[in-house]
Amino acid sequence: MTRRVWAVAIGCLLVAGCASQGTPTGAGAPGSVMSAPPSSPSPAFSSPVDVGSETPPPLPTPVFGSEGTLPPMPPGGRTLDTSDPDSVWAAQNVIDVFAEEVSAVSQYDPAYCDVAIDPAHDGLTVWWHGTASAPVLDVVNRARLDGITAVVLPAAFGQHALDVAMGQLDGGMQKLGITMMDVATDCSGVDVGLATVTPQGEAAIRALVDPSIPLLFKQMAPAAF
User: Fold this and answer.
1) Where in the chain is the domain with CATH 3.30.300.50?
2) CB–CB of 179/19 below 8 Å?
3) Residue 160: how many CA atoms within 13 Å on its side-chain side?
4) How crowded is residue 65: how many other Cβ atoms within 10 Å of its Cβ?
5) Strand 2-4 to strand 112-118: parallel, antiparallel, or no bridges (unpaired)?
6) Residue 189: which region, alpha, beta or left (left: phi > 0; alpha: psi -120 to 50)?
7) Cβ atoms within 10 Å of 187's Cβ, excluding its own
8) 83 contact partners, CB below 8 Å, separation of at least 6
9) Do residues 103 and 62 touch, judged by C-beta distance below 8 A?
10) Which residue of 11, 103, 129, 184 pairs with 111 in a disulfide if CB–CB is 3.0 to 4.6 A?
């Protein structure tokens, strides 16, 4: 998954999260969702085998040097004008490739959780449980050399552990009243959207998931099944 984080300064926040199901609006993703030009594909789950599925094909790693050059930041910051060569979209095209590289070299590492880009501010964020792998640090260092503000933040869980938790609920979403599941933006647990939030409903859902995985409940609109 590549999450896109837009600054409040441009009035909206765009997040594309991994492992999302239903209608994702993960924690830390307030605001409206803005349509954008086609972006990079979401990274595969961090386990070679998804819950209840066949082994997914590996993500291709972009060719070294294919990232391109980040356009210089214009005075006052980047704009949403697609005709402006120094716009947000021009920066996104470059940062996206670095994010794809992070996803590709991390897809089978259980410590990897997520990657996000912030093209409005030339940002790239990787969430990792423990010490990031050498291949990921190499991508982050090359991104920094290209003028990108790239950081690795600690994650409470790797994506695999959160994927397993969501897999334990996947088959009973409708019965449990779940309208959305997604990895929390900071990888601190699983966001669970409910049509109606009640203590009884929360307890029934928690009973099906490893108690070490935090579930973050929120009121959501009913899902169309």
Assistant:
1) 159-219
2) no
3) 12
4) 8
5) parallel
6) left
7) 23
8) none
9) no
10) 129
Structure tokens at 188: 């601190």
| Residue 154, pLDDT score | 96
Residue 73 φ then ψ, to 5°? -70, 120
CATH of 159-219, one of 3.30.300.50, 1.10.730.10, 3.40.50.720, 3.50.50.60: 3.30.300.50
| Tokens 């940002």, residue located | 123
In the chain (225 residues long), the average pLDDT of successive 10-residue segments reads: 44 34 33 38 40 60 78 86 87 94 93 94 96 96 95 94 90 85 90 88 90 89 55
Amino acid at residue number 130: G
Amino acid at 34: M
